[in-house]
């Protein structure tokens, strides 16, 4: 049982799924960051420079980059929670589908980022293979956490 479920009476309500999505998005975003950090370090890159790319705007810092990344991860997690709530009766019978839904969702996020967001900020300097891997990790974590919730 999730800790958040202790606080809510209706464990399958829309709002519970959205709140769980915020929490799961933060967890998944943290794991995504750790995987991206490992890939950056293994390929000889500078971790601080990678984080600064996430900060955008005129002021860049690794702390702002990490905070921005986690904030976006939480928002995307909440949206995924809402989507899972709509599909929970279908996904509950097949746990693997929640995992796959997470990966598909992350692929859509990656595509949107590549087309709309990356052209406007310097984050595009991250190699594509690292970007794809990190989003895959995010999707697997997010889908896996919800698979556990609805099974």
- The SSE string, one letter per element, is HHHHHH
Tally the helices. 6
Percent of sequence in beta strands: under 5%
Query: How many beta strands in the DSSP annotation?
Result: 0
Q: Report the sheet with the most strands, covering strand number, pairing sense and barrel closure.
A: none
List unreliable stretches of 5+ residues.
none
Q: Which whole number gives the mean pLDDT?
A: 85
What global shape is seen?
A: elongated
Radius of gyration: 16 Å
| Broad structural category | mainly alpha
**Percentage of helical residues?**
over 70%
- Please report the distance between the alpha carbons of the first and last residues: 11 Å
Summarize the structure.
It is built from 6 helices and no strands.
Write the SSE topology:
Blueprint: H1 3-7, H2 14-42, H3 47-53, H4 62-91, H5 95-117, H6 128-150
Features:
151 residues, mainly alpha, elongated, 6 helices
Describe the structure.
With 151 residues, the chain is mainly α. It is built from 6 helices and no strands. Helix 2 packs antiparallel against helix 6 and helix 3 crosses helix 4. The longest helix has 30 residues. It starts with a helix and ends with a helix. The mean pLDDT is 85.
